[in-house]
Amino acid sequence: MNPEYLPWKMLAAEVTVGTGSEDWSLDAVSEEDSPDRTFDVEVTFSTPFAAPPVVHLGLTGFDLEQWSSSRLNLSVVGVTESGFTARLTTWRSSRVYRASFQWLAVGA
Q1: Residue 1 has pLDDT above 60, yes or no
Q2: How far apart, in whole angstroms, are the C-alpha atoms of residue 37 and residue 20?
Q3: Which terminus of the chain, N or C, has fewer Cβ atoms within 10 Å?
């Protein structure tokens, strides 16, 4: 194994965002043919990695409008040595009031 990649480092945390978060728009009333609504969460690592790590996300909680279909997507849209951007997306008539996710970053 290449010693430049050892030892491995892992960082993890949980993030909760919602109606109290600045620029939150996932709870807005939307028409069926409106474009998707997104909310980006910028996460900064407590200590940077030597190279961009692999980031895993897991949705751990949510509060959604009960009168419409539940639609919520969570994805990573950019990773650097110092952090990453997580994107929450909903569409059509779905209304999201809060979402929680855990992340795990593994790298050198």
Answers
A1: no
A2: 17
A3: N
Q: In the structure encoding, which two tokens stand for residue 108, read together?
A: 């050198």
Sequence letter at residue 46: S
Beta strands 83-90; 37-44: pairing state: antiparallel
Mean pLDDT of 11-30: 93
Strand-by-strand arrangement of the 73-79 sheet: 37-44, 83-90, 73-79
Distance CA 16, CA 13 (A): 10
Domains with residue ranges and CATH for the chain: 9-107 (2.60.40.2080)
Query: Quick one: tokens of 23?
Result: 């620029």
What percentage of the chain exceeds 70 in pLDDT?
94
In contact, 73 and 86? CB cutoff 8 Å: no
Phi, psi (deg, nearest 5) at residue 4: -65, -25
